[in-house]
Write a structure and sequence with these properties.
By secondary structure, this protein is an alpha+beta fold. The chain is about 25% helix and about 40% strand. The protein starts with a helix and ends with a strand.
Length: about 140
């Protein structure tokens, strides 16, 4: 899969997995919703119930900005399998134009956010490398 196809599949995915690691190097993977905004992956802490506002993914990014995002498609027909991984550097933003653009991109992608947009910190991933695979080579 070429980079442009991989990025298109990434852009169209509705859910992905965000992998972070803290200073201890222990991996932490969570499902998340995201959007693409000017070539960056953006997500935000939303109103869904959380155990604490002090989320491990935010602490990990502050301590170690290296992150990976994975999206995939599984199908009983294994000729239709694919995955895309984007590696980059994550940042947490809570205000300013970059924050507003991230929230706007999420609202535009997910109708669930139209009436209740995320109001927590945003995660911005500056993508450094995208790779992918698909079973069907056609």
């Amino acid at each position: 899969m070429n980079t442009s196809e991989a990025f298109e599949r990434l852009s169209n995915a509705q859910v992905g997995y965000l992998a972070t690691a803290g200073v201890d190097g222990r991996p932490h993977v969570v499902p998340f919703v995201f959007a693409i905004e000017e070539g960056r992956i953006v997500s935000a802490v939303d109103h869904k119930p959380k155990r604490s506002p002090n989320l491990r993914r935010l602490r990990n990014i502050a301590a170690n900005p290296a992150v990976s995002v994975l999206v995939d498609h599984y199908d009983g027909d294994w000729n239709r399998l694919w995955w895309v991984r984007a590696d980059g550097r994550g940042r947490v933003v809570s205000e300013g134009s970059e924050y507003r653009a991230a929230i706007a991109a999420l609202v535009a992608k997910y109708h669930q956010y139209q009436e209740n947009p995320p109001n927590g910190p945003a995660i911005v991933v500056d993508v450094e490398h995208v790779t992918g695979w698909r079973a069907d080579r056609g």
